[in-house]
Task: inverse folding
């Protein structure tokens, strides 16, 4: 009796699963069924705000509700893993943040089940370059000033980061590697605490995303002395880039895109990529994102995948250096 | 004086019917969110962020802020009624609040919590108006070494959480520290005791532990007493007696002070001020041995500190644009979704908005009092529900609440495990509060200790070279010596019996 019932149940389940799979490949998205986009960090953070700005536009484009769900934890590993294990029907997606996502699997000691192959990239959404920042009353006005101070007192200039193995930490390492200096690295838990320590004079220089520094820079509380990018930021046109400084400092920034579980059928990925292309051309969205220090940069699935591979290659040595420095 | 004029303008906006309605809705939702065990202010505001994007910015922020401090108050209700803190900050209220409820004094406990929250909230908001900028500058002087020294003072006071025996409190405190070791270490990134589970990377969820130790542990140990009639405790007078008022006045004043100042210090979280206030009240009391048996000061102090902290913690957000706690970070997200970037420019670029929100904090705190005092009899009457039913409801809400914080089923298992631990603690007559305290303090202390040493290149003298941290450490040693002396006296008294 029991076996018959479970056999029947299995049969029904299989049929249902097949039915949805067929339906999802033919017409996507399924009418009335919401698309869940996972933000692998907390509500109210940078990625979350950007995702919530995009969600209503995506919903309009795709004709179904688009929800934003926060699954924070283990520096994004939990949210990314959950998305990777979701049913690949295009109704569960994730906002993938680089290089944080890459640092999960590039750090072999971590033994994470989440890999580069776990997700299929859909489209790149925006980039948030990092900046090198000092207090407004600091004598340092340029990257050269900091380099000179750090060379004069090796290991004494206190450089904050946004957390161990965070993007801010890689920024600090890239700076030290590129300029041949050594800082006393102080790891904080996020950009806010780091900024607070900088304002209080507990660290001498900080590495943070430009969006988090903009208000303070404009108010004259801090001074961004360098943008870790190849070209100048639209938001800080007077600030030199690391490329201009004459040192070979790796450009560092957070780049956020949309990804799906790896088995998601190609047509669905293309449909989503197309929707992302349309919404990233919306001038209102671009303007709002720029206010937050984010540059909207659309890349299609192939280009985003190539971009991701390049990030893997660039950050592997930085990750090893970060671990080495801690030891 | 300028700020007073601007504040008057803020009132004009905050008192508009629509904004009043938003504040009221926020207070009501906040109270309910606080009442539901586990769903604290952070989860509550996060759940409502999508709503914030859809409303007019001023109204949305007024409502979210009201939810935030409403939840801080609401957390008290279940602490008093069922020993189940609605959010982590109310854990310390369980000790005397629940004891009061068991002796039929749930009414006065809830009333003083509402009044204390009101006083703390209003004073902190006035502080925001008058002295925000100089104070934030002062608070910025608190770098990692100072925060570490401040936490050391808190840790030295741990024996204040002892019910009878200091040794038992220390045993619980050490267990808390051990549990706090779970997770990625903050400097080297090494995984400690995570057993390959990603869920443990950021340590054990404090909310889950608190719910388990207090709420579930209490239910388990009550269920066991089947022979005893499970009738609700007698419900005595609902209002404060003159004596209650006299007893709590000092506690409310000190709680306001503690909550306000600790609210300005970055990254402390809401549990440190409530606990510190409790410890101070116990130390100053002529009858410290009666704490834990339903002393109204043990509710008045922490509950006041809780709301003073909640409102003061908004100051760094307004003046610096830096969120000082996870909940405030959520609130900051709501600002940004609405196109308002908090920070030094907020008062110049969005003056009307900023002052309206500040005025709404005063309006909202008053509303919270008006809303909650009449509700006291209603909450107290919940105790008339037969215990077997109430116990099921408490367990159900604990599970839902803990799950909802991170949408994580793993946290539910953590809570169940610590429910059993809480039950064992009751059997062994170990107090649970010191364990929660060290669980909260240890990661903060470890992080600030290591950050301090990173700043100094490994040189310990950084703690003594900086005057503020040196004096705080001296205070910690002073507290430790005093506790040791009173402990020795207690031992001597015991041996004479």
Result:
């Amino acid at each position: 009796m029991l076996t018959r019932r479970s056999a029947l149940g299995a049969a029904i389940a299989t049929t249902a699963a097949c039915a949805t799979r067929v339906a999802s490949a033919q017409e996507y998205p399924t009418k009335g069924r919401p698309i869940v986009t996972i933000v692998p960090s907390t509500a109210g953070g940078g990625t979350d705000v950007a995702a919530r700005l995009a969600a209503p536009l995506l919903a309009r484009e795709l004709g179904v509700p688009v929800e934003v769900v926060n699954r924070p934890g283990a520096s994004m590993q939990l949210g990314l893993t959950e998305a990777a294990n979701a049913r690949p029907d295009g109704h569960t997606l994730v906002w993938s943040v680089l290089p944080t996502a890459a640092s999960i699997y590039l750090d072999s000691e971590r033994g994470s089940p989440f890999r580069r192959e776990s997700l299929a990239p859909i489209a790149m959404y925006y980039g948030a370059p990092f900046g090198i920042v000092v207090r407004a009353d600091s004598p340092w006005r340029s990257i050269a000033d900091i380099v000179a101070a750090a060379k004069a007192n090796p290991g004494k200039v206190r450089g904050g980061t946004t957390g161990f193995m965070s993007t801010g930490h890689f920024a600090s390492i890239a700076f030290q590697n590129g300029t041949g200096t050594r800082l006393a690295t102080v790891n904080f838990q996020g950009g806010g605490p780091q900024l607070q320590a900088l304002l209080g004079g507990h660290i001498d220089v900080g590495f943070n995303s430009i969006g988090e520094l903009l208000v303070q820079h404009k108010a004259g509380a801090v001074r961004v002395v360098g943008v870790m990018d190849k070209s100048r930021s639209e938001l800080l046109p007077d600030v030199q880039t690391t490329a201009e400084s004459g040192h070979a400092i790796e450009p560092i920034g957070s780049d956020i895109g949309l990804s799906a579980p790896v088995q998601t059928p190609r047509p669905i990925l293309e449909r989503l990529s197309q929707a992302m292309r349309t919404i990233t051309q919306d001038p209102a969205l671009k303007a709002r994102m720029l206010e937050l220090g984010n540059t909207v940069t659309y890349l299609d699935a192939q280009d985003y995948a190539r971009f991701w591979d390049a990030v893997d290659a660039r950050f592997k040595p930085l990750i090893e250096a970060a671990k080495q420095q801690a030891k | 004086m300028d700020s007073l004029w601007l504040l008057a303008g803020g009132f004009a906006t905050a008192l508009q019917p629509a904004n009043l309605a938003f504040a009221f809705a926020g207070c009501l939702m906040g109270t309910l969110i606080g009442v539901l065990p586990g769903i604290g202010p952070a989860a509550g505001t996060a759940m409502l962020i999508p709503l914030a994007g859809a409303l007019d910015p001023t109204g949305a922020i007024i409502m979210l802020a009201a939810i935030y401090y409403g939840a801080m108050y609401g957390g008290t209700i279940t602490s008093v009624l069922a020993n189940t803190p609605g959010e982590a900050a109310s854990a310390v209220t369980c000790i005397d609040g629940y004891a009061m409820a068991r002796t039929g004094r749930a009414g006065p406990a809830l009333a003083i919590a509402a009044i204390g929250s009101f006083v703390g909230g209003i004073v902190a908001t006035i502080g925001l108006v008058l002295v925000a900028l100089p104070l934030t500058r002062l608070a910025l002087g608190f770098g990692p070494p100072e925060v570490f020294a401040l936490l050391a003072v808190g840790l030295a006071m741990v024996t204040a959480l002892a019910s009878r025996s200091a040794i038992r409190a220390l045993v619980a405190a050490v267990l808390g520290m051990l549990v706090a070791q779970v997770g990625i270490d903050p400097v080297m990134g090494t995984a400690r005791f995570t057993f390959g589970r990603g869920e443990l990377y950021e340590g054990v969820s404090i909310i889950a532990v608190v719910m388990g130790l207090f709420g579930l542990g209490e239910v388990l140990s009550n269920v066991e007493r089947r022979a005893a009639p499970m009738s609700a405790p007698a419900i005595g007078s609902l209002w404060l007696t003159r004596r209650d008022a006299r007893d709590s006045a000092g506690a409310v004043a000190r709680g306001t002070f503690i909550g306000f100042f600790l609210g300005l210090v970055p990254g402390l979280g809401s549990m440190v001020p409530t606990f510190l206030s409790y410890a101070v009240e116990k130390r100053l009391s002529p009858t410290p041995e009666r704490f834990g048996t339903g002393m109204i000061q043990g509710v008045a102090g922490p509950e006041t500190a809780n709301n003073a902290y909640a409102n003061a913690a908004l100051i760094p957000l307004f003046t610096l644009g830096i969120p000082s706690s996870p909940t405030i970070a959520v609130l900051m997200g709501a600002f940004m979704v609405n196109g308002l970037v908090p920070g030094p420019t907020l008062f110049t670029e969005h003056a009307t908005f900023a002052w309206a929100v500040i005025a709404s904090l005063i309006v909202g705190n008053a509303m919270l009092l008006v809303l909650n005092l009449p509700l006291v009899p209603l909450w107290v009457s919940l105790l008339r529900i037969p215990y077997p039913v109430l116990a099921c409801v408490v367990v159900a809400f604990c599970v839902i609440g803990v799950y909802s914080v991170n949408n994580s089923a793993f946290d539910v298992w953590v809570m169940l495990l610590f429910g059993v631990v809480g039950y064992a603690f009751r059997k062994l007559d170990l107090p649970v509060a010191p364990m929660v305290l060290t669980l909260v303090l240890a990661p903060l202390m470890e992080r600030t200790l290591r950050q301090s040493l990173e700043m100094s290149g490994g040189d310990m003298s950084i703690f003594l070279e900086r005057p503020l941290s040196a004096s705080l450490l001296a205070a910690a040693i002073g507290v430790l010596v005093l506790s040791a002396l009173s402990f020795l006296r207690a031992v001597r008294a015991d041996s004479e019996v």
